[in-house]
Amino acid sequence: MQQGRQEGRQQGRQEGRQQGRQEGESALLQKQLERRFGPLPNWVNERLGQATSEQLETWGLDLLDAAGLDEVFKAH
Question: Are the C-beta atoms of residues 23 and 48 closer than 8 Å to each other?
C-alpha cells in the first residue's frame, strides 16, 4: 500500500512537470507569435491551449520561416 501511494505521488509529480513544461512552451510560442504578427486572433489562442508538446515544437520551428499565421498552423 505504501509503495502504491509513493508510485502515485511520483506519477503525479511527473504529470505536473509535463503539464508545466507544456504551458511554458505554449506561453513562449504565444509571445513569439504576437511579436512577429501582432495581436493574435482567438483561434490561435485556442489552438495553443489544446496543443501537444509535439505540435508546439513544430509550430515553433515553422514560425521561423512563415510569412503569416496560416503558414505556422498549416497541416503537416
Answer: no
Give the Å distances, CA to CA, from 48 to 5, 54, 56, 64: 33, 12, 7, 17
Tell me how far apart the alpha carbons of residues 66 and 70 are, in angstroms, rounded to a whole number.
8
57 vs 13: CA distance, rounded Å = 23
Confidence band of 76 (pLDDT split at 50, 70, 90): low
Alpha carbon of residue 21 to chain centroid:
8
pLDDT digits (tens, 9 = 90+) for 1-27: 877 777 777 777 777 777 778 889 999
